[in-house]
Specification:
The chain is an all-alpha fold. Helix content is 77%, strand content 0%.
Amino acid sequence: MDEMKSALERALERADRMGRLSPEELQRQNEGRYIQAGEAITQRFFEHGNTSILAEQIEKLESGGTAIAIRSALATLIGGMDLSNKDLTERTLDGINSLGGSKPVNEISEEIMSLFGQYAWQKKLWYEENAEEAGKEIKERMASAGIYGSAIAEINIENNEEWAQKSDELRSEFNSRLSEMKKVLGQALYSE
């Protein structure tokens, strides 16, 4: 009967022969688990929008993994900032400040929100300066195609190629500035 072993016993013997995880492998495995936990916590925050969710969920983790989960959550939050969505970025900054708020972080957050105002102002300024000229060009093209008078409703220059190109240039410039601010924000958060 000694020769008859269950599948479980054979699997356990093989596992023993293979050895246990090294401390480094265990650490990497735990880090991966807490990184995923930080990302999941951030996702839950985005779904519900309440900053208290971040702290509540972090507190539920084992003390050894909270720092890793917070760093992961902060990285996910920083990555979530987007020039095309001011409300989302504002909510993201609220989450960042709730997890790692300090005077430098708050100042950088204010600069990021200021960037949105600058972007909107630049876009509006260019639009106002060029709307009339672009509208004239569009009307001339339509007239040359035989379209006149009441057949032409209000001109939307945002459909104009020049407007699209200028809008892309502005977006690119401000996205570049936002990327730099994200880096500075990350450095401020991780240096604490």
